[in-house]
Amino acid sequence: MFRKIRFLLITVVVLALAAGAYTFAAANTIEDSAAGYKDSVVSGYAITNIVYGLNATDPTQLDNILLDVTPITGTAVAKTVKIQTLNAGPWIDCSSGLVPITGNGVTATCTTTGVALIDVTALNVVASSSVTP
Question: Strands 45-54 and 124-128: what pairing?
Fold first, then answer.
């Protein structure tokens, strides 16, 4: 009889712990997030209003690229934006100058000083609602 009570007591304790863990997990909330790269399935942002800022003195040089980054669904504002002007080239960080626009979008200004316009062979954009470390 003592074994049955002991087994029953252990079972009740295990069930209580499991219910407590479930309740704790059910209370967690995760904010909207998004990420996108090229035309992949992960695309969470629309990239629009791309403006190539030519150098005033030498228009063969590119001073900056401006672009609007807006979530396709949800409300996850882009906090990290990077561009690449060459396939497999270096990434240019645009995250420091994100300016909010209507809705949940931002305008990113990507400084490209020293990039010759003729060398721009691609415009790859990576955007994320997370801040990179």
Answer: unpaired
Q: 17: how many CB neighbours lie within 10 A of its CB?
A: 10
DSSP 16-52: HHHHHHHHHHHT-------EEETTSTT--EEEEEEEE
Strand partners, 51: 66
CA pair distance 6, 82, nearest whole angstrom: 61
Predicted local distance difference test score (pLDDT) of residue 131? 83
d(CA 15, CA 35): 39
Q: How many CA atoms lie within 13 A of 104 on its CB side?
A: 18
Q: Is 94 in contact with 110 (CB distance < 8 Å)?
A: yes
Q: Contact 79/128 with Cβ under 8 angstroms?
A: yes
- The DSSP result for 62-114, as a single string, is EEEEEEEEEESSS-----EEEEESSTT---EE-GGG-EE-STT-EEEEEEEEE
Segment 68-93, tens digit of pLDDT = 999 888 888 999 999 999 888 899 99
Type of residue numbered 131: V
